[in-house]
Specification:
The protein is an alpha/beta fold and 377 residues long. The protein has a domain of 144 residues: Rossmann fold (3-Layer(aba) Sandwich). The protein contains eleven helices and 13 strands. It has a six-stranded mixed β-sheet with strand order 9-8-10-11-12-13, sandwiched between helices. A five-stranded parallel β-sheet has the order 4-3-5-6-7, with helices on both faces. It has a two-stranded antiparallel sheet with strand order 1-2. α7 links the parallel β10 and β11. The longest helix is centred in the middle third of the chain and has 17 residues. The protein is globular.
Length: 377
């Protein structure tokens, strides 16, 4: 039987509430730069659902241990174009360096060939462990055979492995995409009064994202007879040049659409640009997933109607902790599901003051909690 390891938040761990104000001079970074001048998308909503409530427990370790010093690890970021991957990679590097480890932080460029090459080179060089962020090991090719052959500790984040997945993954850390889809659907139905006309944008090749989108589609078909759904696939490799035009075209083909699901915050800014180009900025509500700082800022200003945030900083520190425990010879257990929280204009003022810098981080001081478990200051 799996032991109870849930961390209950203590009052002293909570950070000060209140998101900092967004000034007119805010510079949006990463994927969001192309839509920096877009106006509000849709109108503010007061609809609330359970997924908007504060998270009071998280799945995490509670037992202290002494990490093995002097290790060198690979942190493979799916691609710097995905701001969530990049933020998590930076945070993992910060956590690992707190242990005195050397970190090879590699941009996977959203290219499985690059993923395979980076992992193979790391194994050949004698790396002590690997963390892969949203980079599907099934696409690595021969590199995972080397990981297995040399028994290199391997942690996967932001993707839920299936029974048929390649061997060599010691543990994983991920959200529940089905619950996430349920939560998004609940909000859309509540906000629209059961009359939403929804364009779902999907991400082929990213299994959890596809599961989440399919869940929204299925839930709306089952639970919202007054809703209408249209679907279109996103190309990750070309979204910077083609996605805005794709969204504009879809809205022109389907003028009744009043909600757009962008599948991931990496795409949300281009989606917002497409909505504006279609002249639908005041009538279409953008809903996204990820909790990137840029998009949470847009929730506050009304440019994004709702965002399903993942606890990216916490995931990063948990991944390093998991890898350290595996290296130290402790049993590996998956951490699933990592909590998410839905943010809209109705609850964004409850957010952590650092959300617009690093994203939502589960509302408690997990960094000091991990350092205490590791026996470091």
């Amino acid at each position: 039987m799996r032991r109870d390891r849930r961390m209950t938040l203590r009052p002293w761990q909570r950070r000060a509430a209140g998101v900092v104000a967004i000034g007119a001079a805010l510079i949006l970074t990463g994927c969001s730069s192309s839509a920096g001048g877009a106006g509000p998308v849709g109108s503010a909503s007061t609809a609330t659902v359970d997924a908007m409530k504060p998270v009071t427990e998280v799945d995490g370790p509670t037992e202290a241990f002494t990490p093995t010093p002097g290790k060198r690890i690979l942190v493979l970021v799916c691609g710097s174009g995905g701001q969530g991957c990049a933020l998590e990679g930076d945070e993992q590097k910060r956590a690992a360096e707190a242990l005195g480890w050397q970190v090879d932080l590699v941009d996977g460029q959203l290219d499985p060939k690059v993923w395979n090459q980076a992992v193979q080179q790391a194994v050949d060089s004698g790396v002590d462990g690997i963390i892969a962020i949203s980079a599907d090991p099934n696409l690595y090719g021969a590199a995972m055979e080397s990981v297995r052959a040399k028994n290199v500790p391997f942690v996967l984040t932001n993707q839920t492995p299936q029974q048929s997945d390649v061997q060599g993954i010691d543990t994983y850390i991920a959200t529940d995409p089905v619950k996430g889809g349920n939560d998004v659907t609940d909000w859309i139905v509540a906000d629209s009064g059961g009359q939403a006309k929804v364009l779902l944008l999907d991400l082929p090749g990213y299994r959890d994202a596809m599961t989440r989108t399919k869940t929204i589609d299925d839930d709306l078909a089952k639970d919202c007879p007054g809703c209408v759904v249209y679907r279109s696939d996103i190309s990750v490799q070309t979204m910077g040049t083609s996605l805005a035009a794709q969204v504009t075209s879809q809205l022109q083909q389907h003028p009744d659409v009043d909600y757009v699901w962008s599948a991931d915050d990496a795409a949300a800014s281009f989606v917002a640009q497409g909505i504006q180009q279609a002249g639908r900025g005041s009538s279409v509500k953008l809903v996204s997933m990820g909790g990137f700082p840029d998009q949470l800022a847009r929730v506050q200003t009304g440019q994004v109607a709702a965002d399903l945030a993942t606890a990216t900083p916490y995931t990063a520190w948990l991944a390093v902790d998991s890898l350290a425990r595996i290296i130290a010879g402790q049993p590996a257990e998956p951490y699933w599901p990592i909590p998410q929280r839905l943010w809209t204009t109705a609850n964004i003022a409850e957010g952590d003051e650092q959300m617009l810098d690093v994203g939502w981080d589960t509302d408690f001081d997990f960094m000091n909690a991990f350092k205490t478990m590791w026996g470091i200051k």
